[in-house]
């Protein structure tokens, strides 16, 4: 009997130990690529070619980051990317949520046909060339507005997938909330702003992260629609050009000063690629925790008992 009791007491300990070790292994496997890239970005480029860089730089240097920022174009492109990400995310989430709320109303007679038309955009697209001529005919070439209306060079301001996600979430909310607000004299805009949006905080945070990451990472729309205007160049596009030029010539062709040439001679494609990866990923890593905390909150805000 005592042996059986001791066995039952030992099973939770064994389970939690093995579970903890498994989670630790997953964390190590997940973090190692990023930490390795961070170490390479701070290691001397010539020394990196020898290999053997894991989690800690062997020869510390800031030359890789100097090569990224030395021309000044990257810093300006950074603020363009920040502006397009903020404006595009806010408008994208707002308009998508408004459309999702409209098609979620059972008393709206056109909700089915609108849903079908929006969903069709997930499966059918005119293609790259018609999209380019559309942007050209709208006089949006080399304008900041093209980043908002045509992010990524293909998708529009409203994503069908995001609309379906928000609509499904709205469908889980008690209908009595909307009915109570309308009985108090609130219109659809007031119901949407005061009732629906606060309750949709978790799904809106998730959609915001999707849109923000998409806006931040895309560079192809800059190449298509604004490559001839340097003032509208985005961070990702500048980093793509920098990495391409470094890979081809092992030096930045825009560097003209003696200090710049010295910097270029000490970097390699591997080291500059690591620095570019860190520069491009850090802003999203900083923003993510502020959105992640909303994922599991806000579901029952203002709810009523049935």
From TrEMBL:
<dbReference type="InterPro" id="IPR000515">
    <property type="entry name" value="MetI-like"/>
</dbReference>
<keyword id="KW-0813">Transport</keyword>
<dbReference type="InterPro" id="IPR035906">
    <property type="entry name" value="MetI-like_sf"/>
</dbReference>
<keyword id="KW-1003">Cell membrane</keyword>
<keyword id="KW-0812">Transmembrane</keyword>
<protein>
    <submittedName>
        <fullName>Carbohydrate ABC transporter permease</fullName>
    </submittedName>
</protein>
<keyword id="KW-0472">Membrane</keyword>
<feature type="transmembrane region" description="Helical">
    <location>
        <begin position="270"/>
        <end position="291"/>
    </location>
</feature>
<feature type="transmembrane region" description="Helical">
    <location>
        <begin position="145"/>
        <end position="170"/>
    </location>
</feature>
<dbReference type="Pfam" id="PF00528">
    <property type="entry name" value="BPD_transp_1"/>
</dbReference>
<keyword id="KW-1133">Transmembrane helix</keyword>
<feature type="transmembrane region" description="Helical">
    <location>
        <begin position="12"/>
        <end position="35"/>
    </location>
</feature>
<feature type="domain" description="ABC transmembrane type-1">
    <location>
        <begin position="78"/>
        <end position="291"/>
    </location>
</feature>
<feature type="transmembrane region" description="Helical">
    <location>
        <begin position="191"/>
        <end position="213"/>
    </location>
</feature>
<comment type="similarity">
    <text>Belongs to the binding-protein-dependent transport system permease family.</text>
</comment>
<feature type="transmembrane region" description="Helical">
    <location>
        <begin position="78"/>
        <end position="101"/>
    </location>
</feature>
<feature type="transmembrane region" description="Helical">
    <location>
        <begin position="113"/>
        <end position="133"/>
    </location>
</feature>
């Amino acid at each position: 009997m005592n042996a059986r009791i001791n066995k039952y007491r030992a099973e939770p300990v064994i389970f939690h130990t093995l579970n903890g070790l498994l989670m630790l292994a997953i964390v190590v496997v997940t973090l190692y690529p990023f930490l390795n890239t961070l170490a390479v970005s701070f290691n001397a480029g010539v020394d990196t070619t020898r290999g053997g860089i894991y989690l800690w730089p062997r020869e510390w240097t800031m030359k890789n980051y100097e090569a990224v920022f030395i021309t000044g174009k990257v810093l300006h492109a950074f603020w363009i990317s920040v502006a397009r990400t903020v404006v595009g995310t806010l408008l994208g989430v707002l308009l998508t949520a408004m459309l999702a709320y409209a098609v979620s109303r059972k008393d709206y007679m056109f909700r089915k046909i609108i849903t079908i038309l929006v969903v069709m955009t997930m499966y059918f697209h005119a293609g790259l060339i018609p999209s380019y001529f559309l942007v050209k005919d709208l006089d949006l070439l080399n304008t900041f507005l093209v980043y908002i209306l045509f992010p990524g060079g293909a998708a529009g301001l409203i994503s069908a997938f995001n609309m379906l996600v928000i609509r499904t979430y709205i469908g889980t909310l008690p209908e009595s909330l909307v009915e109570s607000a309308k009985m108090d004299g609130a219109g659809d805009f007031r119901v949407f702003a005061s009732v629906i949006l606060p309750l949709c905080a978790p799904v809106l945070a998730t959609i915001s992260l999707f849109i923000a990451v998409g806006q931040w990472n895309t560079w192809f729309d800059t190449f298509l629609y604004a490559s001839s205007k340097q003032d509208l160049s985005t961070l990702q596009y500048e980093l793509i050009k920098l990495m391409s030029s470094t890979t081809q010539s092992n030096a930045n062709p825009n560097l003209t000063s003696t200090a710049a040439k010295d910097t270029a001679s000490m970097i390699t494609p591997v080291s500059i690629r690591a620095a570019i990866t860190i520069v491009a990923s850090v802003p999203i890593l900083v923003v993510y925790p502020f959105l992640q905390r909303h994922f599991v909150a806000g579901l029952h805000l203002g709810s009523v008992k049935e």
